[in-house]
Design a protein that fits this description.
With 328 residues, the chain is an alpha/beta fold. Helices cover 46% and strands 18% of the residues. The strands form two sheets. The chain has a five-stranded mixed beta sheet, sandwiched between helices. Strands 7-6-8-5-9 form a five-stranded mixed beta sheet, sandwiched between helices.
Length: 328
């Protein structure tokens, strides 16, 4: 029997084992999905991201052939739920319903438990929506002009509920800088808690997106002072943009929603996910409901979503530096 060095035998065994692992990995990717899938929402239930995720639950489940479950993991400006997905297996069974926090957090926090650039792979984008400034009925504020004319609150500073380190926090700071209107930012753990205090008159204002604002505006329980973006929404034709009211520089301060997976997701699984998302977004019911929520669909490939997020990170980094809002 010929002599074979132990090192050579080990290398051969390792090579065979590696080939087997690769084959098993490829089979798993081709076989995807074969068990329930989780969409992690890094916010409390009832918020806009939660609403969007639950709107996608049924059509995604129908197209993927497996149950899709929404899992709310709020906290720390959305970084807790985001970190959970970043550290999950890159097999397609755990994905993130991401929003602006994905691009604002790197500018706000000195350290994050994940790398916002390399820890994720884009599946696709759902759409974007402007940020709306809502007022308590007790304030009788209906426009920027009303805010400028309210000398009592204007001198003290209008109270605004914000999630510390959240996109709404940055949008509020940008609004203050561009409008020159004095604000007092009151920290909240979630938008729903801030909304409760706006309704009760404990605070004056709240920045949120149309998905969260819709029930309050349509019921008359809150009033929309204005919104970011460049044009009015068909779902809210009476809500003027800030630019229309003389406040510039808020045209790009919008919310967006996208599905992200952990980095390393196999291309086969990524393509199945992207196809399922595109199919879900094309259904008449989803299209109608997104429109009702003021969310405009965006047509982007996963690669374009990656570039879009990179540009958004740079934009918010500039805003954070200009407003001095860096958190520890």
């Amino acid at each position: 029997m010929p002599f074979r060095p132990a090192g050579r035998i080990f290398c051969q065994i390792f090579a065979l084992a590696s080939l087997g692992a690769v084959a098993a990995y490829a089979h798993a990717a081709t076989d995807f999905p074969k068990k329930p899938i989780t969409i992690v929402v890094p916010y409390t239930a009832g918020g806009s991201s939660d609403v969007v995720a639950r709107l996608l639950e049924k059509p995604l489940s129908e197209h993927l052939g497996q149950p899709v479950i929404v899992d709310n993991r709020p906290g720390a400006g959305a970084t807790i739920g985001t970190a959970l997905v970043a550290k999950s297996s890159a097999d397609g069974y755990t994905v993130l319903l991401a929003d602006n926090a994905q691009t604002t957090a790197p500018a706000m926090y000195a350290r994050l438990p994940y790398d916002p650039v390399t820890s994720f792979k884009a599946i696709g984008i759902v759409g974007s929506a402007p940020a709306m400034l809502l007022s308590s009925p007790q304030t009788k504020l209906r426009s920027i002009r009303d805010m400028l004319n309210d000398r009592v609150r204007g001198n003290e500073g209008f109270t605004v509920g914000v999630g510390s380190g959240s996109p709404s926090h940055l949008i509020t700071a940008l609004f203050q800088a561009q409008s020159k209107i004095k604000l007092q930012m009151i920290p909240y753990k979630g938008a729903s808690q801030a909304a409760t205090d706006v309704l009760g008159g404990q605070i004056d204002l709240l920045f949120t997106n149309p998905a969260s604002a819709a029930p309050y505006i349509k019921s008359g329980r809150m009033h929309a002072i204005g919104m970011t973006g460049t044009h009015r929404l068909s779902a809210f034709p009476d809500v003027a943009t800030f630019r229309e009211q003389g406040v510039q520089g808020l045209e790009k301060a919008n919310y967006w929603f996208a599905l992200l997976a952990p980095a390393g997701l196999p291309n086969e699984v990524s393509q199945k996910w992207s196809g399922a998302l595109a199919a879900a977004l094309s259904t008449p019911e989803v299209t109608r409901k997104l429109g009702d929520l003021g969310i405009s669909k965006i047509d982007m490939t996963p690669a374009q979503v990656q570039r879009f997020m990179a540009e958004d990170r740079q934009n918010w980094a500039h805003i954070v530096n200009a407003t001095g809002m860096k958190l520890q």
